[in-house]
Amino acid sequence: MILVKQYKMVISILESQKIGNYKILFAKGETKEIIGLRALISTGGPKKISMSRLEDLIDYANKNPEEINRRFELFMEVHHPDMIETGNYFMLIEVPISISFLMWLGIRPGFGIYGVGTEFSLRYSKPPELKSDLGYEDKYAPYFEAYKYAIEKGIPKEAARFILPLGTETWVILQFPPFRDYFKFANYLKEVSKLIENENLVEMGEIIEKFVEENLGIKPVKKEKPLTLSFNEKKLMEKFGYNELYGTKLDLNYSSNTYISVNNTLDTILITSELPIAIIRQIIRHRQIMPYLLPPKTWPQFLEYKGIYYGAYIKNREDIRNIFERVVEYSKHAIEKEEKIIEKLNHIPLGTYIPIAMLIPQQAIEYIIEQRTCHRAQLETRIFFEAVAKYLQKIYGKVMGPSCITKGECYELGKESCPVYISLSKLGKIR
């Protein structure tokens, strides 16, 4: 007799609301089911089925509990110093990348908002139906056509995505500890709405507050102190006592203005750089990092000033580069025509360089490097943290890198296809 392990799983949809062309869905499930669902989204989801709605994702998860459980069990093998358990409620949100980017900026201890979540991966799968914010597919068509052309010509999705606009639709799953952080996040959305002239975020914040009050029985707390997304680079570095204004320059082949300083008194690391938005989106997902950016209304000017990063795979592909360059010119003209800040932002390609400063606790940097120098990490993000690791190794006197090198262990899904894992396995240097 063959015994088959049985799984019972039910993720329940409690409420779903449209806000213009945005959508928010509230759901409930067991902790391991939610964690498994987050892992499913972060790796691109099931690639062989069509999912055009948030409800499709929930339906797939309920019909495939074995896969969700497998992802949960693997997830729990990995050490996550910023992980918190957040109960049984969660939100699935359908918004453009411009909004998800701003959401992630605010969800971190430095802003007083504790939460966990993940976002649909553009590295492994195409965006959901390649839809765009506000339903204006035609005005975003040049970006999507260039993206599709690059993929058809053999360019990996993670490189082709640099031409996608911030108006591209994405899916986000979020959880907050009951109850105060739901309200803080709602207030954060309302403050962001003023920065980008987007009333949809005000309504979304109000919907979140109403859901928590009606379903969890907690009334909204008083308005939190407004949070800022801006910084003054010089004052920031002088304030934290770094010996040199810019510190030591890091050798990055795609960013010529990246500097690092270490303050041993405060146990912090400061990195200043100009990076493509696509890379910043990856970096700020580490909640231990405190990012400082210029206000969103200034971002379009950097498209004119710095242009975009086309990706290492496109460097020697003149046909694709020419198409991308034409799309960038289209983007500049479209930004000039738009009136609202959010509409301008939605025309910025993901490859656009913008300035960023990051404060990182020394206690967290080793873990971040371990995650982001993994061979399965996005190429440019890996290059960035390899440069950081090279500099810090001299200071700390220890090897820093992926867990397969430093610990002889690998926790990644699909590790059997990784050339580094295969090589180390043959040498007997990894468990």
Write the layout of secondary structure elements.
Elements lengths: L11 E8 L2 E7 L2 H12 L11 H10 L1 H11 L13 E8 H10 L9 E4 L17 H16 L4 H4 L8 E7 L4 H17 L3 H17 L16 H7 L8 E2 L9 E5 L4 E9 H7 L6 E4 L5 H8 L11 H20 L3 H5 L7 E9 H11 L6 H18 L6 H4 L12 H8 L5
Antiparallel strand pairs: 1-2, 2-3, 3-5, 4-5, 6-7, 7-8, 8-10, 9-10
Helix pairs in contact: 1-3, 5-12, 7-8, 14-15
Plain-language structure description:
The protein is of the alpha+beta class and 431 residues long. It folds into 3 domains: 12-134 and 163-216, no CATH class; 233-397, Gyrase A, domain 2, CATH 3.30.1360.170; 401-431, no CATH class. It is 43% helix and 15% strand. The protein has 17 helices and 10 strands. It has helices at 31-42, 54-63, 65-75, 97-106, 137-152, 157-160, 180-196, 200-216, 233-239, 277-283, 299-306, 318-337, 341-345, 362-372, 379-396, 403-406, 419-426, and strands at 12-19, 22-28, 89-96, 116-119, 169-175, 248-249, 259-263, 268-276, 290-293, 353-361. A 5-stranded antiparallel sheet has the order 1-2-3-5-4, sandwiched between helices. The protein has a 5-stranded antiparallel sheet with strand order 6-7-8-10-9. A hairpin with a 2-residue loop joins strand 1 and strand 2 (22-28). Helix 14 (362-372) packs across helix 15. The longest helix has 20 residues, at 318-337.
